[in-house]
Amino acid sequence: MVQISEVNENQASQRENRTAAHTHIKGLGLNEHGVAKNIDGGFVGQKDAREACGIIVDLIKSKRMSGKAVLIAGPPATGKTALALAVSQELGPKVPFCPIVGSELYSAEVKKTSALMENFRKAIGLRIKETKEVYEGEVIELTPEEAENPLGGYGKTISHVIVGLRTAKGTKNLRLDPSIYESLQKERVTVGDVIYIESNTGAVKRVGRSDAYATEFDLEAEEYVPLPKGEVHKKKEIVQDVTLHDLDVANARPQGGQDVLSMMGQLLKPKKTEITDKLRSEVNKVVSKYIDQGVAELIPGVLFIDEVNMLDMEIFTYLNKALESSIAPLVILASNRGLTTVKGSDDPDIKAPHGIPPDLVDRLLIVRTLPYNFDETKIIISKRAQLENVLIAVDALTKLAEKGVNTSLRYSLQLLTPASILSTTAGRAEINVQDIEDCELLFLDSTRSTKVLTETKTFL
Ligand SMILES: Nc1ncnc2c1ncn2[C@@H]1O[C@H](COP(=O)(O)OP(=O)(O)OP(=O)(O)O)[C@@H](O)[C@H]1O
Ligand SMILES: [Mg+2]
């Protein structure tokens, strides 16, 4: 019997901590009329941009954004990345968000257009719903049966595993293949867990711990689930979220099959093989077949390309074409530049806004972000301090906010952690003005570092 392992949702297509600076952002913070409250969803101020992003979310939900993309333009640290993240959050849970910077597309191994396509596909989710025949229940017995090793030697092998499953309606004992025993061990199944085993693939999934075993701890990592109702052997709808890129990678190996099952089966065996256009179109074919059959549903997500001025002509033309595709994700570009030359254009003297060629600018909905005033800066810093669990004195907060207005919000936010270390070292619970001043001496902001450079004409 084949053993098929499922997609581990935590592993499939999630980028690590790139957005940790934005953990306080929970959405755009709009009311039901699309109007932004001054402080909501983790955001402070920047109301026009938030409302504009809200309209974009509505356009996507009503499927009227195809062929268009978004540009968020504004000075550094005015919340461009935060807005893009919030848009993906507003689109719904499990909507893929794929953040990259322009320069990531250049590598010696992969063509830049291919790298762009890869990121496009990382931003397109596929929700697969399958009704499968399963055995589900609380494990009441788990006994491996040993046998003499048929190859001789002293060791013993496992010939079967006996699993007893219980539901509200009855119990069943299953005698299973040793390969399933391995999956049971991988999922760390023990007596008292609720699991299901797919009957034709043998895949095992641990649902949680049966709530009959619930303990009285207030906080515990374990998830308790009720005893399943119905028979042990039944049909069950199983939902999995993957991205098209996951499927590409899974099938970049020659043994990749033609149906979703074998496509998914390959998911946990990563191996670097080139993903060709041919392979992608084959995956597309299978995917559209499953969409037609109602088994799968496309979930277009958000591809966020920061520092868009790093893209060149070749990528822009490709981007233009990719936007036309019927399954494109929402592409959000961001830039903090003004007029610059377009990389790779014939005439380097011609400048274009944000380094984007005019024909693409034409397709863009442009959202502008504005610098924050003193009050807004102050609230953002104090929210961030709360999140990072640091206490800050009122006058120190004022000082930091002033600093933020004069230099940049990000600079002030970045001083928060070192300042808290200084205060802790000095044995104080709260950051005071002195800590901020000390930090300022230790770490330069961009204006001051430029000043030092121009004055001394050497190095910092
Ligand atoms: N309106 C806001 N409310 C709350 N936090 C904000 C707001 N704007 C920005 N921030 C926070 O400030 C920090 C800087 O913002 P962000 O990274 O989004 O700026 P950016 O415009 O993308 O800057 P850059 O041009 O340098 O990429 C982040 O931690 C972000 O979460
Ligand atoms: Mg940014």
UniProtKB/TrEMBL annotation:
SMART domains, sorted: AAA
A Pfam family it matches: TIP49_C
Enzyme Commission code: 3.6.4.12
One GO MF term: ATP binding
Domain AAA+ ATPase positions: 66-371
Any one GO BP annotation for this protein: DNA repair
Family membership: Belongs to the RuvB family.
PANTHER family per record: RUVB-RELATED REPTIN AND PONTIN (PTHR11093)
Protein name as annotated: RuvB-like helicase
